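Deliverable D4.2, example record:
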Amino acid sequence: MTDAHALQEEEARYQAVLALDPLNKGALEALVTHLHDESWRVRRAAAEGLRRLPGASEAATRLVAVLGERGETGARNAAAEALVGLGDASVAPLIQLLSHADPDQRKFAADILGQLGRRGAEGALVGVLADPDLNVRVSAVEALGHVGSEPGARAVEQLLKESSSLLRLAALEALAQLQWPPPLPVVVPMLAEPQLRRSAYRVLGLIPQMAATELIIRGLSHESRSTREAALAALGIQVGVVDATLRAEIDIEVRTALKRIPDAVAFVAKAFEAEEVPLRAGALVAAGALREASLAVQAAEAAREDRLLREAIRTLSRLGSEAGRELLGRMAELSLPARAAAAQALLELADPSYVPALSALLEWAEDDLRAVAVKALGRTQSQDAVRPLVMLLDEPALAGAAVRALGVLSGGCREAVLRGLEEAMERKPSPAAVAAFAHAGGVTALPTLRRLARDADPLLRAAALDAAVDVDPSVGLELARGALVDESSRVRAAGARAVGRVGDKLASALLKRALQDEDIAVQLAAVEALGECGTTERVPDLEVLVRHPDGALAGRAVRALARISIVRPDVLREAAHHADAEVVKAALQAGAVSAEGVALAIELLGHAGWDVRAAAARVLGDSGGRECLNAVQFALETEQDTLARRALSDAVDRLSRR
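Output generated by the structure prediction step:
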């Protein structure tokens, strides 16, 4: 038969398997027959087809029988794959197979149960740990490494006292996989056995004791490179479980041990290239302890593994300013995760010499990285950082960050910051520049703020008012009086906000006009201000606004009344019948602590909006009594929306426990 003909026949058999209808009578036996095919493609297709059969339990029992066909290696492996694919249906027949007279069958059953990973098999596997056949016991241990909980881990731990090195090795690996630390005295002797050493170090790393740390650190000086790597991996594991207060002591001990190794830096650098995550974690700990700047790029690249991000940032922040310069110089070469880790570390390493490189980062397209560069510039405490930060005050995306950075910078070089901001104000003032100038200048900025409050640009008038309130509330209130009658609605809104922040006793009178302003943005600011300052004189005006057709204004009025703690039942009910669902939800929130509000929430379980029904359920879950349970259960039975059902379910659960 030619190769081409053989391939055609294989393809025909493969297509025949794919075409089998799993509902047809005889489909099970047909697929089992194909498990014996000489082609792995056909066997794989048959195994996948068995997963689609309606009678999973029958299929599992039949497949277990295939496992006993000695000499049919391909069929047995395909049957094992199919049993894993059948999931829970395979557990019972495989557990039964664990008591088969043939140790080969018992081993097969343990192996497949391990692949299934079902906790229900744990008890049976623990029982097999006493099997007379060593290979069966080893397979059971390995399976428990996948499915075990505390009982399985404790049973495996007992095997560390066995004489068989193979069994003890399997037990160590299983405990490492289960993250179960055995007693330290049991592990120590195994560190001296070459065939067990690497696995013994893995579990040693799970023990959060300084005595274990000392043994790990001792391993870092071992003459064997493989032992040093095992110890380094153990260190990477242990720093994840040890008390944070011990980290400083661990770092000192690690540094001392590594300094005794002639090729320590090269050893750690090589460890960063390993596939094993714990080994790379250990490399991070070692690099931080060594304070070796040449390892900065590799430490940053370790952040490509999510589990190592935090340790990578910690390590980078310990490598010193020279490492920071290395990272800044090679930022373009770093991967995105490494770049993010480096950027965070630079906040800790910030050094005056970084200013040029950080300024260059401001030209990058990545806003997250630029924002970190802005923050780092503020921390450099360098006068050279003033100019790049001031230049950003006109860029909306980074203006806020630049204001904050200049505030930090002014702690160490206030005069330079003020000069830079004064120049910016003279050249082309912006709202962000006004805010930064007020923050840095304090009361000395008030004359400039008074002047800007009369500027032709309404944006600057509003910014000057906001800044003045922060510097001196009395000056802010003085400027707010004029702002409330300004021609610009933006300035009038700023005036209303300022009154609310100051909370003066005259707030009620000052805000009366703003509540009736022709511009809704001013009304919104006035309502918010009344809620903030807590004045009660304008409550009737707020109650009128609850009926306003604009949902934003009506909702804010409800929230303001709630902050003042005056929401009459009739007003609450009026808000609950508003056309805007957001107002209804505001009413629910406002009434959540009152009997009227709870009654209203029950009523709103039948609202047309799913979000309102969900909000009502949450109110009842928080504030309702057991008497509300029937209403919520009835609503749950008829609810169709998934998110509303979730809220109702939670409410039923909470109410049932009261």
